[in-house]
Amino acid sequence: MPAAELTAQASDEAVLTVTGTATETADGWTLPVAIVSQDAVDLGREPRLAWFQDGRLVDLTTMDHDGDPYASLAGGGQTLSAEATGDHLWGCGDLADVFDNDAAIGSAPERVAVRPAGTYDVVAVLPTGQGVLLSEPVPLTTTVSAVAPASFREGFADDRLAFGADVTCGMPVTDLPESDARFTVDVVVSPSFEMPHWELPIHVASSGGAGEGEPVSAVLLWVQDGVVIDLGTQDTGYASANEYAAGGPVLSGGSLEDNAVGSAVSTCVPNADGTTFRSYRPAGDYEVIPLVRIGYGDEVPLVLGDPVQVTVGERGRP
What we know:
single chain, mainly beta, five-stranded antiparallel beta sheet, 2 helices, elongated
């Protein structure tokens, strides 16, 4: 949006001024500010940074709000010192599934793109009950080095992502678990991409009543040069509440149509904290192998399909 559309919402309840220089931290940026009240004012949230280029708002740091005022100032020149903050992630960039070992997989997509390197005018922004307080703009030049991607972490494994299988990042394809001969997995059509997921439609079949009534989970294993470099992610959705409760679509009548799924972000590239995954899969040519898990538990049938060629472009997409 043009800067004029934001300044048109400015409030005169208080004056927001910059009192120091912007500082980069491990999480993002901070800019010291002071708020001087003109009238009594309730400040609903902590100040955040808005990012401008060429007179347009190109990013606005997400604002959390717990329902209580951040601070209240009386009229007559009361002053509050604060820090306006902004993280490294690009609020106006792409969303993708972000997986966290401490939370359920498959939650709402989150921001994963790092704000592009460049020169910006940053403005401290603070909503009030009547509008928004805006500081003067401050020039700021950024790089993308703070969140550098990696290829994959050798030997990394998350049991939930690989569905309990003995599959790790960097293992040779020849060491994958043996496919259960009672089941087959056939690829129906070529893989497709709809942000934030790659999906490969598959047909799962069983013989002799094997797996009847069991939930089925299907992921994509990503392979380059005969090495597993990504463990895939669970199904993106369920057709009914019953499927969700069961943990996936259920094998019935000896067959099932399903999608093997992989996110745009790589689950073999955990962040420095080791619990979240935010790095896009690097561009290049891959093979994807559908890995299907029949039921839940430590000892369940695992079924592998044939590899399919996939080319990935920028930001984990075609």
